[in-house]
Amino acid sequence: MKKQFLLSVTLLSCAVMARAQKPDTAQLLVHYKFSHIRDTTNREQPYTENMVLIVGKSAGAYKSYDKQLQDALFRKQVQEQMANSADGHINIQRKASGSGTEYYQFPNGKKLARKEPLLFNNYLITDVLPPIEWKISGDTATFGGLHCQKATAHFKGRDYTAWFSPDLPLHIGPWKLNGLPGVIVEAYDTKKEVDFKFDGIEKAVISAKKDDQPTGQAPNNQGRMAVMIGMDEEASDPNIIQLPTKAIKTTEKEFANLQEAMRKDPNAFAQSMAAAQAASQGRPAPKIDIRIGPQPVINNPIELPEKK
């Protein structure tokens, strides 16, 4: 059984990587305070996270803003220590903050992609952008100076109210919400169990080129060292919207099977993944001891089954 599992993991790890999508440049960043009552027995403590929708000319990316800030701080600390260390030794306590799940919407091609991290790898799941039958009303409101209009729809087991801005004509929104004639700047279900609350909007800032190195920092080694100690090797200009090219393409079913295997026996799963990677690189497999703490109670997922 273990051999079969190891073989399946090896095959999956050798799967074709995501094809490069033509990059899009961010125009605006829409910020949200995301709130989700995941445990209905503890409604006073919903899961919360600061999120951002990166809006381009023809595509959008929805990510954890908390994680973006934490990753940026970590990169800065690595660069500073590498620049000031005579022997290359660095010592940084990295804090886990924010979800690693990311959503990419391509409305012109009606395509949705989701990046999911799991242990050593990132996985990419692509699908059709789900159609939503919105009913647009004449109600209007202003969010951050944006003129917005109200719409309602039933989607993934919930009844949603959304506010979109016709002044931002791209048909995208946070998470999987899409299909309105303008960017969705706020949305929530009728029970307020899922809430994408508007938290500001700003113009995207053009970053310095990748080749530009701050004065006094080592240009050649810090990037590789950052990868070695756990940074996302695909970390790049946050204002460029493109699919992660090094993520492993998979399906919803295959990824669910991987998650279940990880949940049932984390050590066996981690050892199999490490062995698969080591075999592909022609080196012996390391011994790994994974310890996972208590997992959150989720009896109210964001996507609910439809009532029959």
TrEMBL record:
Q: How far does the signal peptide extend, from start to end residue?
A: 1-20
Q: Where is this region: Disordered?
A: 277-308
Q: Which UniProt keywords apply?
A: Signal
Q: What is this protein called?
A: GLPGLI family protein
